[in-house]
Structure formats: structure tokens, C-alpha cells
Amino acid sequence: MSPAFRSLNLVFLGPPGSGKGTQARILSERYRIPHIATGDMLREETRRRTEFGSSVKGYMDKGELVPTSVLNGIVLRRFDSDDCSRGFLLDGYPRNVEQAGLLDDLLAELGRTIERVVWFKTDDELVMKRLTGRRTHPNSGRVYNLEFNPPREDGLDDATGESLEQRSDDSEDVVRQRLQVYNDQTVPLIELYKMRGLLVEVNGEDSVENVTEAAMKAVGSPVGL
Ligand code: AMP
Questions:
Q1: How many structural domains is the chain composed of?
Q2: What is the DSSP string of the chain?
Q3: How confident is the model at residue 6, as a pLDDT?
Q4: By residue range, what is the domain housing residue 88?
Q5: For residue 206, how far is the Cα from the chain centroid?
Q6: pLDDT for the residue 138
Q7: Which of 44, 57, 60 has most ligand 1 atoms within 8 Å of its beta carbon, as the pocket-test mutant?
Q8: Do the domain assignments include residue 182?
Q9: Is pLDDT of 1 > 80?
């Protein structure tokens, strides 16, 4: 990685359930850049029952994309924050060709570029198991899976004993829809970034530790970060 980088701007691509959110949390700490997850931002709005939250909930519950025109305001505002000056890690954005174009425009305005796009390649069937079995502890963000990483006590967080929740869009039919949307709208971005020489691929089916190692190797160690 060139020492000339003044900031590290990363995009994580992959189907829902590829582990990109988990990896984004780990790498954003290691590289000390903010983790910007549009899904988390939208869920926070729906949890707080803001007007904006109510306007996007229907799309999310059905596993459809929130229209870019509706979503873009909160994304642009997030980029304006001071903590993005050293870079950022985008998780769940861009999700289609339109958003990729908007991101390019925004970065051009800021005089910045994307350094790497990390693609967490994961098979649809594994995604299905990971998501329908996923349970989370809302306050900490800790994630469990009924099959791969069950809590010690059924339905309860190991550390606090508080109840775990299932995301409303992790039911089987909604996961199918989310996968369909990913394959139709997001997969074309893989080719787009490949052609631009930005894409690196990691195996999203490997263990969390191995995927972290592979992703960090692919991104490199930017000097000064
Ligand atoms: P995620 O947590 O990334 O799986 O996102 C959950 C849901 O939020 C998606 O199924 C969409 O409804 C919505 N969403 C998140 N990011 C975007 C985006 N970049 N564009 C449109 N909708 C999004």
C-alpha cells in the first residue's frame, strides 16, 4: 500500500450474512477509521421511530432496497463528520450502480478515492443458515447463531443474561428476497470494481479469525494509520 495515501477509504461488498458487518467492526478498530453501515443507521432510525424511520421500515421489512433518493441524505451527512477525515469503511453502501456513481461523485468532490473494495464471497445456502439462525443482543451488538455459535442459555446473551432478538428481516422469505436483491442489484458492482482494479476477494465462508487475516492482508498496512 502506498505511503502516499492520506486517508483510507474502504468498501465492503458481499451478500447479507457474508460476515462483512462483523469484519467491518473489527477492521474499523484496527485501522481506526469509522464503520459506516447504512443498515445500522436505518435500523437506528426505525428503532427511534423517527418520521424518516417510519418511511423506510416498509422497504426493510420486505427485504427491498430503500430508494437511493430517500437514503442519500443521511449518507451524505455522515460523510461530513470530522471522524471521516482519515477515511471510512463502508458496509452496505453502495448497493447498486446508481449509488456507486453517487459515491464516486462525492469522493471526487472531496478529492478522495476508494482504495480497496473487499468482496466477501459466500454461498447462498450458507447465508440462509447464518441469517435465519442469527440472534443479536441489541445493546451490545453481540451476534450469535443457533447452529454455529449458540448462546450458553437459550435466547439469552452470555455476558448480560438479557434477551436476544431476531432481526425482523431475518425470516426465511425475507432473506430470500434480500439475496435476490443482492444478486440482481449489487453483484454488478463486483465487475465494475474489478475492472477498476480495486477489487480484492476473500472467502466469507472461513472462520472469523481467518477472514480478518485475509481481509487485512488484502487491504495492506497503510503508513500512518
Ligand atoms: P443490512 O443491515 O445492510 O443488511 O441492511 C438492511 C436493510 O436496510 C436492507 O435490506 C435495505 O432495506 C436497507 N438498506 C441498507 N443499506 C442500503 C442501501 N445502501 N441502499 C438501500 N437500502 C439499504
A1: 1
A2: --TT-SSEEEEEE--TTSSHHHHHHHHHHHHT--EEEHHHHHHHHHHTT-HHHHHHHHHHHHTPPPPHHHHHHHHHHHHTSGGGTTEEEEES---SHHHHHHHHHHHHHHT----EEEEEE--HHHHHHHHHTEEE-TTT--EEETTTB--SSTTB-TTT-PBPB--GGGSHHHHHHHHHHIIIIITHHHHHHHHTT-EEEEETTS-HHHHHHHHHHHH---TT-
A3: 66
A4: 8-123+187-219
A5: 17
A6: 86
A7: 60
A8: no
A9: no
Report the separation in Å between the CA atom of 93 and the middle of ligand 1, taken as the mean of its atom positions: 8
Q: Is residue 176 part of a domain?
A: no
Report the pLDDT value the prediction gives residue 223, as an integer from 0 to 100.
52
User: Residues with Cβ within 6 A of ligand 1?
Assistant: 16, 38-39, 42, 59-60, 63-66, 71, 92-93, 95, 99, 169, 178
- Is 79 a domain residue? yes
pLDDT in tens, 72-103: 999 888 988 888 888 999 999 999 999 999 99
Q: What is the pTM of this model?
A: 0.90
